[in-house]
Write a structure and sequence with these properties.
single chain, alpha/beta, Alkaline Phosphatase, subunit A, two-stranded antiparallel sheet, 16 helices, 16 strands
């Protein structure tokens, strides 16, 4: 008996593969959050802003920055040090780098690249692709479409039913008709004939989705089709990313023993960064955290089977926290009540209401109400003079040359006002476009340990597939 015991011990050292290995946890449920344009400073700035609102220097942590795995990833595309959203989205979806402007195809734009969401579907999981912008925008499109140019919105959208995922959600579609073929079918007819039910708004989704095998959730009639409202501009009844996430979880988990894959994009972080609008950007990141909280609620019920990964496709704007002094004044941003785009809309309303005869006092009241100028936020004489000069130039002649960024065209007065508030907050921007800055990666749950060590964007979908066993 003693000899047998010795043989067993020796055998365990000579043949370790014969030992019983700990059971590997597989991610049955995968949440993949992408904050478009969300660099490290956007996240850090949000946490420091929240602390300053509480009257202290430091950070108030967001939920996802407390994940056990915190990392970063590089974002360059196949031929460019600075990626576009199409190439970055394709890398995050498929694990392959491609040429800027390309959706779900190789760098020669000849062969399709298939996403981790397709792998999930083939593995028997239900799949949802959701966003706060249009469903045919670059990041969501990279998970289901294969087109040589991201601006081929109709063609991208017609790829949607071919992929056959269970749920798509976002603001709407940018092109429901073909620009090149007048005989091509209307997009919504294609969706219906492919078995999708288009539901408009959360209320209709709640009422009708229970009887639908496949769903496209978009905003109600009359709402914008390109994006949901910014969080800072949101009104009661507006669709939000957190609401979409919650509805998607319920839909994908219904009568489902096999698990699901859900991609959720916070698309308007990028838009506000293109617009160099710090207050709006921090609100968008806080809004992404609200969507992540819905996933965390699910994770707490299924901790051994759920993986949550959060990253970004690239950094936008080159935001800097500090402009020379050893200080920040991020708390000043709390007095901004609306986005730069909405401020533009309010100025235009004044123009229309007063037939362009808008007084300086009218503008002062607007900026006091919406940015706190002259009340909570004190302006220097120089700052006030800058505003007055733009006012005189744009209202004195009636001719306005709008300030254009990638996703908006704003009144010069709105642009100057937001720049001054950023200046007071000591926030700087290097551009109105993308940068090559690294982006954060956060992970929790089954397989999250795979995301340790230096990462490139193509590693992330590969590791998700590994963690989930696709």
């Amino acid at each position: 008996m003693k000899c047998l015991f010795v043989m067993l011990i020796v055998g365990m050292f000579l043949f370790p593969q014969c030992q019983r290995a700990p059971k590997e946890r597989k991610a049955k449920y995968v949440f993949y959050f992408i904050g478009d344009g969300m660099g490290i400073n956007q996240v850090n700035g949000t946490e420091m802003y929240l602390a300053e609102k509480e009257g202290r220097v430091g950070i108030r942590p967001l939920n996802f920055t407390q994940f056990p795995v915190t990392n970063f990833a590089t974002t360059y595309s196949k031929y460019n040090a600075v990626t576009c959203s199409a190439a970055a989205g394709t890398a995050l979806a498929t694990g392959v780098k491609t040429k800027n402007g390309t959706i779900g195809m190789d760098s020669l734009r000849q062969s399709p690249l298939y996403s981790v969401a397709v792998a999930a579907k083939k593995a028997g999981r239900k799949v949802g692709i959701t966003t706060s912008v249009s469903v045919d925008h670059a990041t969501p499109a990279a998970f289901y479409a294969h087109q040589p140019n991201r601006s081929m919105y109709y063609e991208i959208a017609t790829d949607l039913p071919r992929t056959g995922f269970d749920l798509y959600a976002g603001a709407g579609f940018l092109q429901s008709k073909s620009k090149n073929d007048s005989t091509a079918a209307f997009l919504y007819d294609i969706l219906r004939d492919s078995g999708y039910v288009v539901l408009r708004g959360a209320e209709e989704f709640v009422t009708r989705s229970g009887e639908c095998p496949k769903v496209v959730l978009i905003q109600p009639e009359g709402c914008a089709t390109d994006c949901l409202p910014y969080a800072i501009d949101r009104k009661t009844g507006d669709l939000s990313l957190s609401q979409i996430t919650e509805l998607a979880i319920g839909f994908l988990n219904r009568n489902n023993e096999d698990g699901f894959f859900l991609m959720a994009e916070g698309g308007k972080i990028d838009w506000s960064c293109h617009n160099n609008d710090a207050a709006t950007t921090f609100q968008e990141i806080m809004d992404l955290a609200k969507a992540v909280e819905k996933a965390l609620d699910f994770y707490r019920q299924h901790p051994d089977e759920t993986l949550i990964v959060i990253t970004a496709d690239h950094e936008t704007g080159g935001i800097g926290l500090g402009t020379g002094k050893y200080a920040l004044n991020l708390g000043a941003l709390q007095h901004q009540q609306i986005s730069k785009e909405e401020l533009t809309a309010r100025i235009r309303e004044l123009r229309a209401e007063k037939k362009n005869k808008v007084s300086w006092e009218d503008i002062q009241i607007l900026l006091a109400d919406q940015l706190g100028f002259g009340r909570s936020v004190k302006l220097s004489t120089k700052q006030e003079q800058k505003l007055k000069e733009v006012y005189q130039e744009t209202f004195g002649t009636g001719k306005v040359k709008l300030e254009k960024s990638l996703y908006s065209a704003d009144e010069p007065l709105a642009g100057q006002a937001v720049r001054i508030l950023n200046e007071i907050a000591m926030v700087g921007w290097t551009s109105g476009s993308h940068s090559a800055g690294v982006v954060p990666v956060f992970a929790i749950g089954a397989g999250s340990e795979l995301f340790q060590g230096k990462l490139d964007n193509v590693d992330i979908p590969r590791k998700i597939a590994q963690a989930a066993g696709y």
